[in-house]
Specification:
The structure is a single chain. The chain is α+β, with helices and mostly antiparallel strands. 36% of the residues lie in helices and 24% in strands. An eight-stranded mixed beta sheet has the order 3-12-11-6-7-8-4-5. Strands 1-2 form a two-stranded antiparallel sheet. The chain has a two-stranded antiparallel sheet with strand order 9-10. The N terminus is likely disordered.
Length: 221
Amino acid sequence: MLYNSGMQVAVPGKLVLHPAWVGFAALALAVPMGALIFRSQSRPELPVLAELPPFSLVDEHDKPFGREDLLGRVWIADFVFTSCADACPKLQAKMRRIQDRLLPAEQGGNIGLLSISVDPARDTPEKLRDYAETFGARTSLWKYLTGAEAEVERTVVKGFRIAMAKMPAKDDDIRAQAFDIMHGERLVLVDRLGRIRGYYDADDQDRVLRDARSLTLGGRG
């Protein structure tokens, strides 16, 4: 005790922590940090599923577009045709929503959107240009491709590993040559080196955007 001017003032003694409390505090701090490290290390790396082969198509402005034009940018691709009345417009609307969610830096060149026509005999560059305008595609961000039928089929089936085939149109007695086109409706993620890194349901936009962004940052590219 310390006495001053006749008044008794208590001076606190040295604080002594029980070893059990020290251990508890250390554990409480270590658990969140350890969890963060574990999540970072355990996050699975996107596999390299295939490497796109060289291809030669044209875009909606009738300019050549090949595999080399994909390099240096992450791409999200879909497969459509302009005369499709049901699945394709829905797919394009989902691609538009992805476009609208891209950040300015991503719009500036980090991420691109790609729509490849599976009906090149009818989908001319001019048709694709009109189609792109219908869905609000930004020219610098979202490309539409067509080309010679054999080259398109080779690119889609052997390159992107997406099924496509012509099938007789249902209930069409007037136009004997009419046909529908069967094609895959999944989105394909391509990295900056022209490699396929994932296939996604078009409704899973959160996941495809998350993975695309991770590739632009180089974390799993």
